[in-house]
Design goal:
mainly beta, globular
Length: about 110
Amino acid sequence: MKRTLKDLASGGHIDRLVIRSMDLSLYIALAEVAGDECLITNNDGSTLKTRNLLDMKQAVSDLPFGELVLRQESAYDEMVGQPGKDGSNALEVGLSAEMYPTPDWQH
């Protein structure tokens, strides 16, 4: 399922916003609403993608979301001699919604 930025901005609350790291420096965004995960697209229907995590945070900054996470899945287990896995090897890390968080030492 796909939803546009405009639709999500006006359509209520997003439970979780997932920024998915696809490959090196390519990011796409997914919205989790009521247990369903959908791909976020630009208003013209093209997939929202960026080459920079900060650019992605900027692109989704107007959306009403509760939790923001970065998800990375590795496709390299089999390449380094590890057996294939039936389950997911996804790693999720919580992110701050702030664009430029102030470091602790500056407080």
